[in-house]
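RECORD TYPE: inverse folding
INPUT: structure tokens
STRUCTURE:
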């Protein structure tokens, strides 16, 4: 099997392989926002909403092409991130844990943390869903601090999940990660500080 191409499997074949070969991998499923299974050889089975799917030779093969496929839309979609308001209180701490782990140093919601994140992004690393949502929330905390605002959570259009935004004392809404979302989806050279600046310039705000 090619390391860069996947083999398509029918729903019937998927069901059979899950019963006999592949085991659900919750960590990878969360990382890619997809239903992902793994076998003893390290092969990856990705199942779509219709029940059919693709088998990849390795995780590395998926990381190389996922941003060029239909899966990128799902991975960077903020729907189903926070489904219950009771989970919101954990996001701030989880964000710092995720970023500190990936950057291998203690990250805080400050200028130095933002600098370290931009250094990380400058080499155009593969950004999975867990890292992406951490960047989204981090941008909100930094933007809120810059404008003396607050991080709040708005209900998504689907009515089933929540997304972070920044609000000022007049309840005006700001989305400091909108440029980041576009950049990541298009596999560009991203900068979190630039995304924050774009939102500030868009609303003609000064530091």
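DESIGNED SEQUENCE:
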């Amino acid at each position: 099997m090619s390391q860069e191409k996947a083999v398509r499997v029918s729903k019937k074949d998927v069901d059979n392989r899950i019963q006999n070969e592949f085991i659900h991998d919750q960590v990878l499923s969360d990382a890619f926002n997809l239903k992902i299974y793994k076998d003893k050889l390290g092969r990856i089975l990705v199942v779509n909403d219709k029940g059919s799917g693709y088998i990849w030779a390795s995780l590395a093969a998926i990381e190389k092409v996922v941003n060029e496929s239909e899966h990128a839309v799902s991975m960077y979609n903020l729907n189903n991130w926070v489904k219950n308001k009771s989970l919101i209180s954990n996001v701030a701490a989880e964000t710092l844990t995720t970023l500190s782990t990936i950057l291998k140093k203690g990250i805080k919601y400050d200028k130095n943390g933002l600098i370290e994140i931009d250094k990380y992004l400058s080499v155009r690393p593969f950004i999975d869903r867990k890292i992406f949502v951490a960047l989204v929330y981090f941008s909100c905390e930094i933007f809120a601090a810059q404008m003396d605002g607050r991080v709040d959570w708005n209900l998504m259009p689907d009515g089933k999940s929540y997304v972070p935004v920044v609000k000022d004392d007049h309840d005006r809404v700001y989305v400091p990660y909108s440029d980041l979302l576009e950049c990541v989806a298009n596999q560009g050279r991203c900068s979190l500080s630039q995304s924050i600046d774009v939102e500030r310039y868009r609303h003609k705000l000064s530091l």
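NOTES: The chain has a mean pLDDT of 86.
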